């Protein structure tokens, strides 16, 4: 039997020696491969068929061209359409800023309201980058954020031997017994442009909101917890000065955060310190002191009430209305007011006080608004005292500290050497408050003896006594040649420093105190213009500026009043207990409380921003400037001084 069969040859897939290849190319490129753009060569474009098509296309009308192109696109593959889109997109781009006049282009950039947007614009093209570099764009942005070069710019270094005021300072002889500290390093160079100013101010603003870096934390061991209380503090761009109840004064560098000096000399607790920043200029409204005071120690016999005997050339007065003691004089020797003590100083100390500086007859008008490193205010308000406790100098080469305390002495210190320049006596009880005038070597101190005394801290003499209070003088503040003092006799008095005249007496009933109210007085008439309410307990902290009044109370509340209408602008429940300290500027409000917290708020809205430090047992003082915040607190039973840096890294 025969049979027919058909057979099929099946080739296993694994044995195949050839791979499958499609006959046509897919329309879309592979997802794993980058698309290849076909670029015809110049020879292909110059071929006669293409030239014929171009000639025919150019001869068509606009409507016919559009129909021709639509028909052509309908017959193209996806790859061909992709190729055409890559060629068409650049042709459709148009730089509208480049086509506009430069004035209009810069005017458009002024509407940009955020620096991040302006930075992105600079990345578009070289032309746009050049437009963004123009000063007008960043100046407008700085104005929108209220950045002022005098307030938010980097600190300007002082000149070495002379400055713009024309004051020539002599070389300081190196004959001191203590090693001299080097000049503080120049933190930052001044901004050369509005863009540099804005970048610096913006980075500082962001650091305040997000948290800067802790520059240094100091823990000071004390035998008695009460003796480690920080009673007073002053801060400028170079130094942080803290007075303690244990009769010591600590000086820290704001650039490194290190403890560089401990000023020892007071016999009892220090209650008031003022930091006089280096540099500056003498106030042109007041005559400069004579450059040489030789012979100042000779005293006329007609002015003395007792016989004097010379001890190593220093006259000794047995008694008198006001005695000044100097640590460089022989033991027990005293000099009668008003001759001064500057003739006792060696040349190095005279140079530290700028006693031999050559002042011009008429200082330039710009010197009145010269800005020291401790304060950046200018203009009419520059005579106001600095809330951080610093004072602009009168041209001296280094910083000085003026302090007072329970030992009734006013002491003048040279920060760079740590030496006492003057020890001035006159008060008969504890000195509770002290201020130094801007650009003048004049200090005003208030005491529990119910008097204020005006001192010449450059020449070491007492100028006058301001008497009138019937109780302890607890606080004072200065503005120009005016000083206002508050006393436990329930009065405030306004004085003329140059004449000693009492201009006004404001009678008050615990204003800003126990009656939970804040009273506002007219300095011209002495009348109470407003009584502000809102606190439910003692009002213990207050700061006043031309635009706002901020108060803090024992109820933990902080109230902000807008001036001049005195309406309540912001109410803040800042702390769980009493507010111990507060300070604000045009951007931020910093408060501290007995609950051990230091908090940062937006001064415009009152919104909580962050806690500046970790909680502690209690916080005594907080002081800050635009780049630095110093916190004086107690932590783990020890006095802690913490410095936080907010400047750009």
UniProtKB/TrEMBL annotation:
InterPro entries: F-box-like_dom_sf, F-box_dom, Quino_amine_DH_bsu, WD40/YVTN_repeat-like_dom_sf, WD40_PAC1, WD40_repeat_CS, WD40_repeat_dom_sf, WD40_rpt
Segments of skewed composition (Polar residues): 14-33
Domain of life: Eukaryota
Mapped WD repeat ranges: 394-423, 424-465, 466-505, 507-531, 572-611
UniProt protein name: WD40-repeat-containing domain protein
Domain F-box: 94-141
Any GO CC annotation of this UniProt entry: transferase complex
PROSITE patterns assigned to the protein according to its UniProt record, in alphabetical order: FBOX, WD_REPEATS_1, WD_REPEATS_2, WD_REPEATS_REGION
Keywords of this entry: Repeat, WD repeat
Compositionally biased region (Low complexity): 293-302
Keyword Transit peptide among UniProt keywords: no
Renumbered residue ranges of the record's region Disordered: 1-33, 282-302, 366-387
